[in-house]
Each structure stands twice: as structure tokens, then as C-alpha cells.
Amino acid sequence: KCAHLRLVCQAEQKPYYTSKLWWCGITLLGLGEVGNFIAYGFAPIALVAPLGCVSVIGSAFISVFFLKKTMRTADILGGTLTITGIYLLVTFTPNVPQELTARQVQNYLVSWPFLVYSILEMILFCILLYFYKRKAVKHIVVLLMMVALLASLTVIAVKAVSSMIALSVKGKMQLTYSVFYIMSVLMATSCAFQIKFLNQAMHLYEATAVVPINFVFFTTSAIISGVIFYQEFQSAALLSVFMFLFG
């Protein structure tokens, strides 16, 4: 956001990707996602995804210091509620086995719940893309919903790839299966398009609006994809499910 603001103030308008500051931001974002990538190999999606609230709270403070935004009472209240909700999510996340083999991923890919989910997701994405491209609707919700839909595929792929790499390092080779490379391509492609739409949102709207909305949409789509694809709540107790949803 800071890079976009600086470019706007320049007499000669240059593309954002010529800015060293923008590349610095993307690099830091990439390093953070490497940490996320590793975490998905050792914990459920329903646990890892909500912890992105750290970036929301961090971005709020960074916006105050670097973008000279005002911290409102509503922002402080929202941050407090976010931290409380994350505590409940982390506490009541189901404890499921995290050793995920290539054969398990193959079975999940052809399961009926995921096939129905992926078809509905593609239809919704195409509708949003139509409004974005043909009707020039660039509302923040449209942009960030497309990011979230792509993110759900990214999270599924990231967990599969990270888990298979972790197993391979332990001596149970999984990298010889074609599904590993399919999921790697899916991960890279969905990430690239996420950056495109997220960058557009950051260009048009304030960081204090984009970051929290994106966090809510991403977390929701990630948890839903984990529930449907990896069946993370299959053996969870009713109380745990209720408290997790409450969080």
C-alpha cells in the first residue's frame, strides 16, 4: 500500500512492479507464507488458517506508524474480539492425524463432497470474474471473494504438498506420485492469481479495510475447504464444534 501511495505522488506514473518497496513487501509476504507452508504440514487447516489474525493486528499497528492512519475505538474493540475468537478456535480445533500420504490425497480428490464443492466454487468464481471483467465491478467484496475462493484451493494444495514433503523427509517417499506435482502446480497457479486480485484491492482501497476483510474471507474459505476435503471435523465432539463456530 505504501508503494502504491508513493507511485501515485510521482509526476511520471510507473507500474507498481517497478517499485523496490513493492518487491520488498512481496518478498516479506512470501517469507511469511513459507512459515505457513511448513505449519500446514504439521497441523490442521482449521488451526493454522485462523492464526493469520497476527497479520491483521500487526497490519493495524503498521498502518498507524507508516501510513499515518488513526486507530479508532472500533479498531481496538475489533482487535480484542479477534484475539478472543482465535483463542477459542485454537483451543477447540479437532485433534486429527497429520500424516497425509499421496494415496490419501488422491482419494480425497475424487470424493463426492469435494467434487460438488469444487464445481460450486468454480461457478461462483466465474460469476464474480464476469462482473469484474465485463461489468467493471471492482468492489472490495468482489475482489476479496475471488481471492478467498482461490485461497481455498491454495490451502488444500499447500497442506497436501507440505505433508508429502514432511513424510518424504522422514523416509516415507511420496514425491514419486503424480498427485504431488499436480498439487504443486495448483498451489503455484492459485497463489499467482491471488496476488493479482489482492494487489488490485490494495491499490483501490485502504489497507485497514482490505486486511481484515481478506482475513475473514480467507479464514472462512480455508476452514470450509479443510472440513470438506480433509474431513477435519469428522470425529469431533459436538461441544468442540459449537465452541469452534462460536470462536
Number of extended strands: 0
**What is the overall number of helices?**
11
Regions with pLDDT < 50 over 5+ consecutive residues? none
Order of helices and strands: HHHHHHHHHHH
Strand content: under 5%
The termini sit apart by 30 Å
Walk me through what this model shows.
The protein is built from eleven helices and no strands. It has 247 residues and is an all-alpha fold. The mean pLDDT is 86. 30% of the residues are buried.
Protein traits:
mainly alpha; 11 helices; globular; EmrE-like; magnesium ion transmembrane transporter activity; NPAL2 protein; transmembrane helix
Question: Could you give the topology of this structure?
Answer:
Layout: H1 2-9, H2 20-40, H3 45-48, H4 53-66, H5 73-91, H6 102-109, H7 112-133, H8 140-169, H9 178-204, H10 207-229, H11 238-246
Helix pairs in contact: 2-8, 4-5, 4-10, 5-11, 7-8, 8-9, 8-10
Question: What is the structure about, briefly put?
Answer:
With 247 residues, the protein is mainly alpha-helical. 75% of the residues lie in helices and 0% in strands.
